[in-house]
Specification:
Order of helices and strands: HHHEEHH
Low-confidence stretches: none
Mean pLDDT: 85
Radius of gyration: 17 Å
Number of helices: 5
Strand content: 5-15%
Number of strands: 2
Largest sheet: 2 strands, antiparallel
Shape: elongated
Helix content: over 70%
Strand order of the largest sheet: 1-2
Length: 141
C-alpha cells in the first residue's frame, strides 16, 4: 500500500478520535488533558516517523490509531446535568440520539486509562523502531 494512502487513513482515524473527544467535552476531559496532550504529541510523532522511516510497522500504527479511537469512544465524562461517554455524545451530535446523556459502563474509566496506556506503549514502540530504521538507513545497512 502506498505511503500516501497509509498517511491519509492514519490521519483520518486520529482526526475522528480527536473530534469525538471534542464532542464529549466535560469535567473528566480536564483531568485527562494532563495525559492527553503528551499522548497525542507522541502519537502524531510516531505516525509521522513510522510513515517516513519504517513502513513495515503500518499494522502497529493502525492498531495505535484504533486504540485512540476506542479510547475516545469509551472515555466517560459528565457535566452538571448528567454523565455521558464519547459514544453517546457522538450519537447525539450526529442526530441519532435525543440527548447525549447515558449511563456509563461501570469500568469505563479504567478501560479508558488502559487504552490510553496501550496507545502510548504502541507509539513508543513505533518511535524506537523508526529510530533504529533511520540509524540503519544512515549507516547504509
Amino acid at each position: 500500500m502506498p505511503k500516501s494512502i497509509i498517511a491519509i487513513i492514519a490521519s483520518l482515524i486520529s482526526i475522528i478520535a480527536i473530534a469525538i473527544l471534542v464532542f464529549s467535552f466535560g469535567w473528566y476531559l480536564m483531568i485527562f488533558i494532563v495525559l492527553l496532550i503528551p499522548a497525542m504529541y507522541i502519537h502524531v510523532l510516531a505516525m509521522v516517523r513510522t510513515i517516513k522511516w519504517n513502513p513495515r510497522f503500518f499494522p502497529v500504527l493502525f492498531l495505535s490509531g484504533i486504540t485512540f479511537l476506542v479510547f475516545s469512544l469509551v472515555r466517560p465524562d459528565g457535566d452538571t446535568f448528567g454523565n455521558y461517554s464519547g459514544y453517546s455524545a457522538s450519537l447525539f451530535k450526529l442526530g441519532y440520539a435525543p440527548q447525549p446523556y447515558a449511563e456509563a459502563w461501570n469500568y469505563a474509566l479504567e478501560a479508558a486509562m488502559i487504552l490510553l496506556l496501550l496507545m502510548v506503549y504502541l507509539d513508543v514502540f513505533l518511535l524506537v523502531k523508526a529510530k533504529k530504521s533511520k540509524k540503519n538507513a544512515s549507516i547504509g545497512v
